[in-house]
Amino acid sequence: MADRISVLYTEEEITARIRELGEQISKDYEGRSVHIIAILKGATFFACELAKRITVPVTLDFMSVSSYGDSTVSSGIVKINKDLDEPIDGKDVIVVEDIVDTGNTLSYLLDNLEKRGASSVKLCALLNKPERRLKDVNVDYTGFIIPDAFVVGYGLDYAQKYRNLPYIGIVET
Ligand code: 5GP
Q: Which of the 8 DSSP states describes residue 32?
């Protein structure tokens, strides 16, 4: 049976918000360059659209991580499946993530990246579910604050499906 998905944010709303984030980041990083680290796979759609809206020079790298534990609750013990291609020392890094949920993954990842000698490390998340937070994570740039629901689309999956939906929707179970 097909899953029922109700639209939370339309493609137009997401595009408009990403444009605003791009403008804000361009202003904040005026005179500098931004090194975006996009977290595979969920953040790729968002990171590419965001990068296009940033007017200062942008370089791009990717990282893939997974959390040990069961599939619904991340454990906080994170495995790096694909590390960065380039060193980040001296760079102004923005980690771009699809969603911050418990904060376990980002808390580990930000600690890990901060030890690698970057000039600065900031976090930009398309979605933020503060109600679910277990670890304190400072989200510097947030697309949308959402309630505690399982969302898909715009890069986010349900069993690897729905990443390609152009909108963000809630899976009704
Ligand atoms: P955290 O470590 O913050 O609990 O987990 C972050 C990761 O859990 C995200 O990168 C994402 O892969 C997954 N995740 C958390 N909430 C959702 C959700 O509502 N929908 C989807 N598709 N993935 C989610």
A: S
